[in-house]
Design brief:
16% strand; 4-stranded mixed β-sheet; alpha/beta; 166 residues
């Protein structure tokens, strides 16, 4: 195979067409991103550079980053949770408190199959997950965080914060 250096020897334009074609950026339709909205629109669109507004950004108040788990995953992990001491088994029923794990889980969703009866304590649960757990012989308990009792003195025993000038 000949190299271009030797291939075009003796040629005036070296394969660039007429002698005017290689002068400026005009022979290639402009330099850089020129013509991105006009004559190079398709090229830019194929390269992922589309101009204008595209897509939809969901409002921040709609987004939630709740840690979730599906009932199918719980069914698979029940034995391991008992081994690690994160859950316990009474008879055939696995008792799992998802809110007090090392990485707490807020919501249970209903994807997957459940074969073991489980008593699950969690903050939120979808209707589909609840029905699947109850069909398998388990139950869902709502997790209520414990409120720390605050020592409050009665108003009679309190001393005033600001001293009054008499």
């Amino acid at each position: 195979m000949k190299k271009n250096v030797t291939k075009f020897r003796g040629s005036r334009t070296c394969g660039g067409g007429t002698h005017k074609n290689r002068r400026g950026g005009g022979s290639r339709g402009g330099r850089g991103n020129a013509g991105g909205c006009k004559h190079h629109f398709v090229r830019n669109y194929m390269n992922g550079m589309a101009y204008g507004k595209h897509g939809f950004k969901r409002p921040q108040k709609v987004l939630s980053n709740k840690p979730i788990v599906n009932v199918g995953e719980l069914d698979e992990l029940a034995e391991q949770l008992v081994q690690y001491g994160e859950a316990h088994k009474q008879g055939d029923i696995y008792h799992i408190n998802l809110a007090e794990l090392e990485y707490p889980i807020v919501k249970v969703l209903g994807n997957g199959r459940i074969t073991k009866p489980m008593a699950i304590t969690v903050s939120e649960c979808s209707a589909r997950a609840r029905s699947k757990i109850e069909e398998a012989g388990g139950s869902i308990e709502k997790y209520i965080p414990s409120v720390k009792e605050v020592d409050i003195e009665p108003e009679e025993n309190r001393e005033p914060d600001v001293e009054e000038d008499v």
